[in-house]
Amino acid sequence: MLKTACQPSQSQREERWDEWEGPIVSELTDEDVQTQDFIDNTIHNMLCELVRQKIQWDTAVIHEVLKTIRQELWNRYGIRIPYAVMEEKE
Predict the structure, then answer these.
(1) Is 10:32 a contact under the CB 8 Å cutoff?
(2) What is the pLDDT of residue 14?
(3) How far apart are CA 19 and CA 26, in angstroms?
(4) pTM of the full predicted structure?
(5) Long-range contact pairs involving 35-44 (C-beta distance under 8 Å, separation at least 24)
(6) Model pLDDT for residues 2-60, shown as the tens digit of each residue
(7) Predicted local confidence at residue 1, as pLDDT
(8) Can you give the chain as a three-state secondary structure string?
(9) How many Cα atoms within 13 Å fall on the side-chain side of residue 87?
(10) At what angle do helices 30-51 and 59-77 cross, to 10 degrees?
(11) According to the model, what pLDDT value does residue 7 have?
């Protein structure tokens, strides 16, 4: 089977964490994007359920909720929720 060039799998790449934030990576894999989509959709659906109505998709609100959840889980229990972010180029 001929393999084409592809992004490294999560187990093959170097990644780092900054406390609760991470993994911080140079490139997102397809798996990273799927995980991000799942988490974002889950949070949006939860918010809709909480207010018992369909609310507008708002990335800023979704990411603020995610940030709060991630920080609290890290601060209280040392648990990380993987949500890959691209490292900033200087």
Answers:
(1) yes
(2) 77
(3) 18
(4) 0.78
(5) 35/82, 35/83, 35/84, 36/83, 36/84, 39/66, 39/81, 39/83, 40/66
(6) 333 344 454 567 778 888 888 888 889 999 999 999 999 999 999 999 999 999 999 99
(7) 35
(8) CCCCCCCCCCCCCCCEEECCEEEEECCCCHHHHHHHHHHHHHHHHHHHHHHCCCCCCCHHHHHHHHHHHHHHHHHHHCCCCCCCEECCCC
(9) 12
(10) 100
(11) 47
Which two tokens mark 79? 């648990």
Burial 52-75 (b: 16+ CB within 10 A, else e): eeeeeeeeeebeebbeeebeeebe
Locus of tokens 């084409």: 4
Q: How far from chain centre, in Å, is Cα 80?
A: 11
Q: What does the pLDDT read at residue 6?
A: 41
